[in-house]
Amino acid sequence: MKRYFTAVLLCLALGGATAAPEPTEKDAIAMAERGAAYMKTHGKDEMMKKITAKDPDFVQGSLYVDMRDINSGIVLAHPINPSIVGKDLTDVPDANGKKYRREIIELAQKKGKGWVDYQYKNPTSGKIEPKTTYILRVGDVVLEAGIYKK
Questions:
Q1: Pairing verdict, β 75-77 and 113-121
Q2: What value does the mean pLDDT take over residues 74-89?
Q3: What distance in Å separates the CA atoms of residue 58 and residue 51, rounded to the nearest whole number?
Q4: What's the pLDDT at 34?
């Protein structure tokens, strides 16, 4: 009986230790700001390389940074969906018809930072889910780091 309880406790402990917490809005802001700091030190091209390489500073489960040009809307770097790099998807709507990428660009141009809500495919679940993304203008680009809402 004692072995049984020891085994149950061990399973519970390991299960709790391996479950990663869901990222928060604070995590998204911190990741975008880390990207901005990196860009200011190393430049836009080096940041694009970090994103493309899925550097752990900028890709952590469902939380990641991507980058788009603030003037053209063209995706410059995306760690999860590289097939959209080089494309202008500004007016392609989400599952609910919202042109959220246009909203991202306009918010970045007007205020330099903020939050945009939309629907997007979660890389961990593979499902379209509600997402909120923190956007941060750095020169002529927008860094985006979003979290999925539960």
A1: unpaired
A2: 96
A3: 6
A4: 98
